[in-house]
């Protein structure tokens, strides 16, 4: 015990945000499956609606089960506050809705989750929000694209699709030298491996659907406000720095200080756009997080063992996993994520496209599907599935050439995983 005061990561994963239920003494967090909450009296109702007092009104905006999930993830990321929503994509949408006006732009890493590339490049364009792509390995490429209408910089800490670590601190420096917030999607790393706020991130996003929930059974997303960014600059972020008519001309950053972004995302963006998470999913995801440190370490240990084994196979042309000592991303991994290199990586089959298809069909324990971050081991051959619509040149540029196989290594016994891969490789001709 001694004199240390701050609870550790594993303790926070289980206890942060939760206490025995005040109404029933239930130890596990109850699922408050209700849409709405009775006011104590008319003055109480008026105070809640005017943001003079915090309390529950309607589950689109707050719910006690969801609040446990929010406090827990905020604690694990070292943030000031968090807002949980229906999916990772809706967390991205609400974040940008808080920051962007029509005609504004943001600079994003070119290597992102495929769904984010679609959302930014197509859906956001309809709102008049422009994305500018930059090379995540080159911080100066971000700087070169910033102009007076740029409102944010956006990266993934551990980038899709291949699983490479990004120099968060270097990109944070570029963003901050232009008075811009750095937004980091930390889905693939989770706060067990990387805590982006410690490296300069101002807002951290997650698809809770993946490793945080961890069991492949519930969709959810969350935004974490680091409480670090100054939103006061006149005219720059009108949602945060200008009087809101719907709340008696309240100015969010003046009223709520370092909680202004998370609170504004709740009382303006979530209230009006509406992608609320179900209390049941919040319960499932908060329960999943209780075992996050155990699961993530096992994911990393299994992935390293599988990657090391793959490197020695004749049918395998190359393996790209930052945990391997000779990988070009190994130094960044050691710096940002010394506990492990994550669960997701790619490798190449010498037999190319046909070998890739035959391999995914030959696997028995790995599931062939388009997801990551399940307890189960998952596999996909991008060139015949997620990236099939691209030209061969685009496929190669996206890291999805004909020979590429992507694994999300689960937490089964690693000798079973290697045996399954071995038998599937054995079925490939050549
Ligand atoms: C899955 C994923 C998303 C989108 O999250 P959903 O919960 O599917 O909406 C965003 N970023 C990354 C890195 C992801 O893996």
Automatic annotation (TrEMBL):
Transmembrane segments: none
A Gene Ontology term for the protein's cellular component: cytoplasm
Keywords (A to Z) from UniProt: Pyridoxal phosphate, Transferase
Cofactor(s) this protein requires: pyridoxal 5'-phosphate
GO BP, sorted A to Z: cysteine biosynthetic process from serine; L-homocysteine biosynthetic process; transsulfuration
Modified residues (N6-(pyridoxal phosphate)lysine): 210
Protein's name according to its UniProt entry: O-acetylhomoserine sulfhydrylase
């Amino acid at each position: 015990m001694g004199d240390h005061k701050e609870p550790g990561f594993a303790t926070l994963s289980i206890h942060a945000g939760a206490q025995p239920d005040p109404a029933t003494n239930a130890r596990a967090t109850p699922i408050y499956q209700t849409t709405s909450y009775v006011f104590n009296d008319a003055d109480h109702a008026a105070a809640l609606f005017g943001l003079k007092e915090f309390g529950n009104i309607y589950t689109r905006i707050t719910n006690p089960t969801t609040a446990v999930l929010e406090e827990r993830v905020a604690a694990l990321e070292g943030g000031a506050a968090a807002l949980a929503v229906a999916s990772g994509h809706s967390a991205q949408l609400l974040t940008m809705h808080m920051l962007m006006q029509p005609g504004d732009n943001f600079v994003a890493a070119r290597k992102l989750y495929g769904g984010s590339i679609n959302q930014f490049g197509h859906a956001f364009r309809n709102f008049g929000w422009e994305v500018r792509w930059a090379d995540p390995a080159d911080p100066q490429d971000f700087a070169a694209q910033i102009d007076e209408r740029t409102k944010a910089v956006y990266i993934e800490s551990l980038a899709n699709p291949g699983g490479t670590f990004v120099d968060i601190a270097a990109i944070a420096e570029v963003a901050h030298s232009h008075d811009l917030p750095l937004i980091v999607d930390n889905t693939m790393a989770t706060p067990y491996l990387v805590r982006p706020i410690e490296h300069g991130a101002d807002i951290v996003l997650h698809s809770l659907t993946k490793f945080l929930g961890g069991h492949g059974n519930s969709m959810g997303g969350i935004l974490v406000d680091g409480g670090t960014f100054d939103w006061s600059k006149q005219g720059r972020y009108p949602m945060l720095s200008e009087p809101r008519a719907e709340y008696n001309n309240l100015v969010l950053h003046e009223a709520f200080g370092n909680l202004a972004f998370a609170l504004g995302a709740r009382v303006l963006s979530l209230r009006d756009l509406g992608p609320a998470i179900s209390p049941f999913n919040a319960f499932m995801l908060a329960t999943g997080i209780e075992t996050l440190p155990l699961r993530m370490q096992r994911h990393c240990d299994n992935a390293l063992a599988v990657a090391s084994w793959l490197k020695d196979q004749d049918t395998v042309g190359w393996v790209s996993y930052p945990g391997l000592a000779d990988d070009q991303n190994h130094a960044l991994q050691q710096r940002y994520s010394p506990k492990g290199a994550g669960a997701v990586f790619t490798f190449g089959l010498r037999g190319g496209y046909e070998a890739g298809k035959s391999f995914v069909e030959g696997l028995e324990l790995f599931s062939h599907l388009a997801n990551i971050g399940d307890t189960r081991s998952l596999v996909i051959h991008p060139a015949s599935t997620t990236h099939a619509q691209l030209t061969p040149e685009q496929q190669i540029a996206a890291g999805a050439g004909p020979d590429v196989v992507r694994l999300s290594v689960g937490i089964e016994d690693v000798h079973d995983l290697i045996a399954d891969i071995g038998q599937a490789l054995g079925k490939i001709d050549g």
